[in-house]
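Appendix C: a fully annotated inverse folding record. The material below is reproduced so that readers can follow the format used throughout the book. The structure is listed first as tokens, followed by the designed sequence.
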């Protein structure tokens, strides 16, 4: 009789485990530290996230798996392959930058935030987000999704006495719970059809279900996608995004815009391409329609923000992130029609890395301006070049990357890669919709960019950046400039695939 006890590959699971352990350390330390010394918790958290990211380096040599099915070494619950490591880099890097922004925020404007709870929740969410791309069974996938999501609800509404924050958290929570319930029902249908939760076994068995279970399996596929479509902020599951981003502390809005999307897209890719390739005729058209709808609604929503002079920069970035989610969905949909699904997924990951770096950079500059202009309206950025030339140039660079214009070369190449994925898959109509939306997006990105260099009204504000905020802006700027100078560092994923 074979033993059910198996060894754990601790090196493979180190990135999410370190984040989880540091979260517990911070929670316990918060009980004993005096209020005057609780700022140390932030730096411990930053160090923990940096250590989690560094633990990705020993894993680049080859694929590692653990928690495998007894007698089936290739059927595992946790796999650290190239896809996992890239998404974990995006997740932990995004969480680290959000932590740097949070160190500054907790030390100045957000005195209503309890520091111990804040850092525990942020680290817990990051641990769940890092676990998700490594998950190779549906149970682990759902658990990781909820571990990443539940602390995020609390983070959005953690600011004491803030009605807008509480309202945003409630809207985020109720819509997410509904989507998760629908997704769980879908997973139960898939399990009933196949008798397994492991993704590779689902892929093998679901292709051969008999006629009586075929409809059940199809329904399960559609319902399973709903929960992950919500996390990606795909239309019509996007309505929580603008209010949540505006109501949340700005570092959490930045975290959700990048890490939340990474969680949603990695789960979506694992469910569709790995577990359900034989049902590409079901999820392919659905994701293509979602991509077209999402990018159009997101960009038109951002464009409508121009109607009022007092529109918020964070709200504009929120609508922009919805539009960007549409572009990210295009290669995933194309994978259903392409002979080389791995290449299509590589295009999504390449675009996600570009988007993560420059979007976090834009949020970091917004955090700097918000230190003196609490409303953080786009109008507050008028004449930023006069008072902070370098900061204005960096924000202009980030916005041009998001728009896909030089000198944001990485943004241009990433959009071309996504566009070519649609064309190669025979989705010419989706490529046309994307091209129209890129033109629409140019208007509001360029309008904000031009505002930075106009003559300021009154005396310009001098924005002093604390060291953590300076580090966050510098890291994102270096990432954006390096990737624009050497785009092959990211775009090679689109050529070689990931699995």
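Designed amino acids, in order:
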């Amino acid at each position: 009789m074979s033993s059910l006890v198996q060894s754990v590959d601790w090196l493979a699971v180190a990135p999410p485990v370190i984040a989880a352990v540091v979260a517990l350390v911070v929670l316990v330390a918060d009980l004993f530290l005096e209020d005057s010394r609780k700022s140390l918790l932030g730096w411990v958290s930053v160090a923990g996230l940096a250590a989690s990211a560094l633990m990705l380096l020993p894993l680049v040599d080859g694929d590692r798996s653990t928690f495998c099915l007894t007698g089936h070494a290739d059927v595992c619950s946790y796999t650290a392959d190239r896809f996992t490591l890239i998404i974990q880099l995006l997740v932990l890097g995004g969480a680290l930058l959000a932590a740097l922004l949070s160190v500054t925020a907790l030390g100045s404007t957000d005195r209503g935030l309890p520091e111990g709870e804040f850092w525990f929740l942020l680290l817990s969410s990051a641990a769940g987000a890092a676990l998700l791309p490594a998950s190779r069974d549906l149970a682990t996938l759902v658990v990781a999704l909820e571990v990443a999501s539940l602390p995020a609800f609390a983070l959005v509404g953690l600011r004491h006495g803030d009605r807008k924050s509480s309202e945003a958290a409630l809207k985020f929570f109720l819509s997410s719970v509904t989507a998760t319930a629908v997704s769980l029902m879908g997973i139960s249908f898939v399990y009933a059809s196949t008798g397994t939760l492991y993704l590779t076994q689902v892929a093998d068995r679901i292709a051969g279900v008999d006629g009586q279970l075929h409809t059940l399996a199809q329904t399960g596929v559609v319902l399973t996608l709903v929960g992950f479509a919500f996390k990606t902020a795909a239309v019509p599951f996007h309505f929580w995004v603008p209010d949540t981003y505006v109501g949340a502390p700005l570092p959490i809005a930045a975290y959700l815009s990048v890490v939340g999307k990474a969680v949603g897209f990695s789960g979506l890719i694992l469910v569709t391409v790995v577990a359900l390739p034989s049902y590409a005729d079901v999820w392919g058209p659905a994701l293509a329609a979602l991509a077209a709808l999402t990018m159009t609604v997101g960009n038109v929503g951002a464009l409508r923000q121009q109607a009022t002079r007092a529109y918020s920069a964070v709200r504009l970035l929120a609508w922009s992130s919805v539009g960007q989610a549409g572009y990210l969905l295009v290669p995933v949909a194309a994978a259903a029609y392409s002979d080389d699904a791995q290449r299509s997924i590589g295009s999504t990951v390449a675009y996600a890395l570009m988007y993560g770096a420059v979007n976090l950079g834009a949020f970091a500059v917004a955090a700097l301006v918000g230190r003196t202009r609490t409303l953080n309206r786009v109008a507050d950025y008028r004449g930023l070049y006069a008072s902070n030339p370098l900061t204005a140039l960096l924000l202009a660079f980030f916005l041009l990357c998001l728009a896909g214009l030089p000198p944001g070369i990485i943004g241009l190449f990433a959009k071309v890669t996504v566009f070519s994925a649609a064309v190669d898959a025979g989705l010419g109509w989706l490529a046309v919709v994307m091209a129209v939306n890129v033109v629409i997006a140019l208007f509001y990105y360029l309008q904000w960019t031009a505002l930075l260099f106009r003559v300021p009204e009154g005396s310009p504000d001098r924005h002093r950046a604390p060291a953590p905020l300076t580090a966050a802006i510098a890291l994102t700027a270096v990432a954006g400039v390096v990737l624009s100078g050497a785009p092959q560092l990211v775009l090679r994923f689109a050529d070689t695939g990931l699995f």
